[in-house]
Design goal:
alpha+beta; five-stranded mixed β-sheet; 11 helices; 8 strands; 48% helix
Length: 282
């Protein structure tokens, strides 16, 4: 049987794609899931095409139909449901040499002028092997006898992997939600007395936003690397001189964090991605 020319086959394929309802719905981005369906369909077309052509023609087809490029161009997020689905499908898990982090996303949309963001993303990180949180797992690794020779390097690498993973995810979402103010963080909420739902507590980490205050009275001062150890020393020995040198900075941090959480929608402006350390462990 005579083979069809590459240009004719390619034109037929692209024409059939344009005429199918799946393609039309994907371009309109009614559902993020349609992007996955289109990718599968294109891969099937390419697989069948390979059976009927030589390698040179198949390579040319790959240039015409680049599914990754198509995914980037046609994926558009327009709702909370689409955002959560996109995150779950594209950024579900990170495996480090120390621990595996599973991301169980929950997404909220804000319609109140009393809050500074449009969308909030909670990672709900689940660790395997289980631990209270990521930093607790890192501190545990530092204390392991079997890993004393490489423990610091292991922890530094794992931390970088996690921060890089979240930053990549954040910048991707920011690009797909133009003109939207977004906050992302791993947030854990609970009650000290859960049965009575009394004394609510929360712990946040790995916080970022793509917005910042227009005006602020106070200035954030980054905590020193040994901050947690210093605070433990302070609890054990309130007269320890090592704590005194951080007292004024700590006051500035408290004032800044308090001022930040009172910000309303029109008090902030869109910016690029930025980590927000003052929101962690607040």
């Amino acid at each position: 049987m005579k083979k069809l020319s590459l240009s004719l086959v390619t034109s037929s394929i692209l024409l059939s794609m344009l005429l199918t309802p799946v393609h039309t719905e994907t371009v309109q981005a009614k559902e993020v899931e349609n992007t996955v369906d289109l990718t599968k369909k294109l891969n099937k077309i390419k697989k069948n095409f390979k059976k009927q052509t030589n390698n040179d023609e198949t390579n040319e087809l790959d240039k015409v139909i680049d599914t990754k490029e198509i995914d980037t161009k046609i994926t558009k997020i327009e709702s909370v449901g689409q955002l959560r689905t996109y995150l779950a499908e594209n950024y579900p898990e990170l495996k480090t040499d120390i621990i595996t982090v599973k991301f169980n996303y929950s997404v909220g949309e804000n319609n109140s002028m009393d809050l500074p963001y449009d969308f909030s993303i909670n990672y709900n990180m689940e660790l395997s092997p289980w631990d209270l949180n990521f930093e607790a797992a890192m501190e545990k690794h530092l204390r392991l006898i079997d890993h004393q020779d490489t423990a610091k390097e292991d922890v530094a690498k794992a931390r970088k992997q996690l921060y890089d993973f979240i930053e990549t995810m954040a910048k991707d979402i920011i690009e797909k939600l133009p003109n939207k103010k977004i906050i992302g963080q791993d947030r854990d909420d609970w009650y000290r007395y859960p049965n009575l739902k009394i004394d609510p507590r929360s712990r946040t980490s790995h916080s970022w936003t793509n917005y910042e205050p227009i005006n602020m009275k106070y200035v954030w001062i980054d905590r020193p690397e040994d901050y947690n150890q210093v605070m433990r020393d302070n609890i054990q020995n309130p007269f320890s001189p090592i704590v005194i040198q951080y007292t004024r900075d700590e006051q500035q941090r408290i004032y800044y964090a308090g001022e930040w959480i009172s910000l309303k929608y029109n008090d902030v402006k869109l910016t690029d991605f930025s980590w927000r350390k003052h929101l962690d462990e607040y």
